[in-house]
Amino acid sequence: MASLLEQALATIVSTFQEYSQLSGNPLCQAKFKELLEKELPTWTPTTLRECEYKQFISVLDTNKDCEVDFVEYMRLLACLCVYCHESFKDSPLKPSCPQ
Length: 99
Fold this sequence. Notes:
Layout: H1 4-19, E1 27-28, H2 29-39, H3 50-60, E2 67-68, H4 70-88
Antiparallel strand pairs: 1-2
């Protein structure tokens, strides 16, 4: 049975592939916006204003091809992970460790 981390990695890859129609191609901006709204609803405002989205995508789209490739997608997820880590590292709730 796959570990939680292995399952998470598989989910990250399969989610990108689902939106790129399993081709491994970059996501067009419309597909990427759909991915954000459906797969990260807690992190995406329900009404993502077009000007905010364009500003966000301009930072994320490092090669300026108006698409989001897998590496750019991973940068977004890595930044979200760092943000979560920083936000929760001083939380009073600590994960329990097996003895």
